[in-house]
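Box 3.1 A note on notation
Throughout this textbook, protein chains are presented in two layers. The first layer is the amino acid sequence; the second is a token string describing backbone geometry. Keep the layers aligned when reading.
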Amino acid sequence: MAVPKYYEFFSSVLYALEDGKTKREYALDALKVSEEDRRELLPSKTQRVSDNRVNWAITYLHKAELIERVTRGKYKITPRGLQALQDKKDHVDLNYLNQFESYREFQGVDYSIEGKSGSENAQEGTPQDNLNASFEQINKELSANLLSEIMDRSPAFFERMVVHLLLKMGYGSALEDGIVTGYSGDEGIDGIIREDKLGFSSIYIQAKRWAEEKPIGRPEIQKFVGALAGQGAQKGLFITTGTFTKEARSYVEKQLATKVVLVDGEKLTKLMIEYNLGVSVESVYTIKKIDTDFFSEEND
């Protein structure tokens, strides 16, 4: 048989995690995918189709909170996932996942419109619309994975990574133009980078590796502004893997003597993807159209 669609792997992945088995091989065996079909590659030749679809099944189940991440590449089934097997057995599908808010947020689509399912809404888009939507969805998952990787690293790694990101964005001119302070008595300043290639001014950095459920509030930002004043600095970047409260953002907007920029986890991962930090290109698709100038007889 051909390799099943990613959503056809939902139940077998859940069963594999319930039984403590290797999810990919169990899922392929359960759906009787032949060895020949398992060797089929994506058009980009970078990955097997079967591996890709099982990975996406895992992504969707994770977003619906039927499974949860333990460590890199390892997941366990949640009570919600066990309930799904009890409710649907071998028929956990996209419509079943649609009932969960976390999954709907990941999809970024209102499935309640006119009672239509996600698959029906997707069919209404043009191929270009669907391609754009898929691109956004892939980047959402990539962003989530980037944050998970960062949270598995040390605070010192995060501080160095932030300086590296700013260098890739064009601040300074070389590695020595960005430093990580990393010593006691740094007054809350984790890094410093030159704003321009000639070094006329510097940006002072605070990097907080915080969980999303623990937003950074106004007191933390006030401490940072105080640290900037102690350094005689006028520009600061407060960057975190988490989020900021409204009060924190409002406080920053009121600062006149000091310019402070706040970057949360969502913005951070977008910048990492844009400037190719911690990511690599897997596939490139070129979309072509008719060259009307070539077919114009007026130019003959």
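Residues 127-151 form the longest helix (25 residues). The chain has a mean pLDDT of 84.
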